User: Fold this.
Amino acid sequence: MPRSGASLFLLPWKFSENVNEMAELKVQLASDAYPIEINHGCLRDCAEKIALLCPAAKYAVITDSTVAKLYASRLLAALDQAGLTAHMFPIQPGETRKNLATIGALAERLALAGFDRHDALIALGGGVVGDITGFLASIYMRGIPFVQVPTTLLAQVDSSIGGKTGVDIEAGKNLIGTFNQPKAVFIDPTTLQSLPTEEMQSGLAEVLKYGLIRDSVFFDYLIARREDIIHQDAAALTDSIAACCRIKAEVVMADEREGDLRRILNFGHTLGHAVEIASRYSLSHGFAVSIGMMAAARLSEHRRLLSAAEREKIHEALTAYQLPTEIPAELDRDRIRFYLKTDKKNVGGQPVFVLLRGIGQAEMHADVGEEEISALLARSK
Ligand SMILES: NC(=O)c1ccc[n+]([C@@H]2O[C@H](COP(=O)([O-])OP(=O)(O)OC[C@H]3O[C@@H](n4cnc5c(N)ncnc54)[C@H](O)[C@@H]3O)[C@@H](O)[C@H]2O)c1
Ligand SMILES: [Zn+2]
Assistant:
């Protein structure tokens, strides 16, 4: 049960610019440890490391048809050159495929191709492919190892790290899933060059989130280096992705199974999710989260946790990254309120908001009342 305003203990760590085009981190869990490598071009030279960190008789590369066209041949050639046997299993792209039918179909295809307990999976793609692959890896033949090779910014800074896997059912998103950690994560930021602008922006909302909840120095860096980051300067992008991975890994290491601490990653997501669903997903996840982060900043100011200047700084940063900060006027406020009240992360029917005690420090508040919620929804109506 989250305590209101509970203070969170994490080892101190502050962002510092690295100017390298590669970074390596380690996720150290009670039961497991695995590396995250961030390296321009690592898609071409991760094969030997895969053999070492995730040894297997053969590998199934799970990907979607869009990513397959762009990057599968590069990875398959690298695996082949390293003397590894690999087969590609493409699925159709999109969230609508993240379901049990896809899991069943992939399991059938793997079995027909002779994949067994000596083999391993490689997730090449965005969060959809990563979540599907991680889930399949935890149940195929009662569990086989897998590696993450994320190709969207959201997957590189969020979904590929932390071990949450899952699929959607009619009743809701991510309702079936497991905790299953990969053997390694290989992040090649050059894959982002082909990412559609809106997907990139959506990921950038999550990047800004990490600075806001955990590291004001990193947040200032994101403001200062915005042009470089948007234009995918190699060092700025590597530094930023590494900072996000480090923060996510740090939170996951401290709280592997979603206790209070891991909830700080939900900053902007309480209202964001409700807005996303109320828009019938016409708003991208990142855009909805950006709106939710601004709302949480306003609520933090209202509760005197955040100064007006800090709230304004957040507004300017989101706007500079061309992210929305207001709930679209046409969205039905009652629908948003309904989804806010029925969110699966609520505690005792009450939405839990992550608020900021200054930029870089997050805390949970489970006591946000009707009036405060109405004030958030009333804005720019
Ligand atoms: N497991 C977790 O902890 C976690 C955390 C956050 C989100 N998620 C999940 O992640 C999913 C969203 O992930 P996403 O935003 O990566 O979506 P996605 O996987 O659907 O990818 C978005 C689109 O980009 C395309 N694409 C991927 N890489 C590309 C590239 N390099 N160039 C061009 N196109 C490319 C894909 O084909 C797809 O059409 C959701 O299902 C969400 O629930 C999971
Ligand atoms: Zn998110």
Remarks:
- The two ends are 33 Å apart (CA to CA).
